Amino acid sequence: ETGRVWISYEGNPAIRRMLPSFARIDGVARPSVIRAWKGNSGGEAMARLADGRFLLFSEGRDRADGSYDAIQFSGDPVDVATRAFRFGYRPPSGYKPTDAVQLPGGRLLILNRHIGFPDGFSAKLVTLDPDAIDEGKAVKGRVIATLASPLLVDNMEGLALTEESPDHSSLTIIR
Asked: What is the mean pLDDT of the chain?
């Protein structure tokens, strides 16, 4: 609605809010819950839900239970009044979350990528009910699609969902 864009930085964990023109940073958040994410394990996948919540998934397996660390923000992560809590995400074995988007019905669609030798790249799409997210607990979604050889699969990093009409949406997977 405002045209602002939020960007997660994976290598130096932070979230920046940009003006619609991308000409200027409108705010930066480095909440304590993401400061411990090191190297290439920072916030890789981020989604803004229709109710205003934000979800941020790390690309590193940082939790004692083997799940990937993730954060739920009650609203704009840059707003100091926003509350946040940690939860765990269990991607399919051998996969890491790279992006997420909320589907029209409310469920979350998460793109999970695998890079392996000699098989190369593959990806799994997982759906997850965001209402199943609870502070401190790990959640696991349901695999709805696997993209692997012999399909032409590359380093899949992003999702774009376009609502064509109330009854039709298009999903683009970005590499």
From this structure: 91
Which portions of the chain are predicted below pLDDT 50?
A: none
Task: Round to whole Å and give the CA distance between 65 and 68.
Answer: 9
Cβ atoms of 70 and 87 within 8 Å: the answer is: yes
CB 159 within 8 A of CB 109: yes
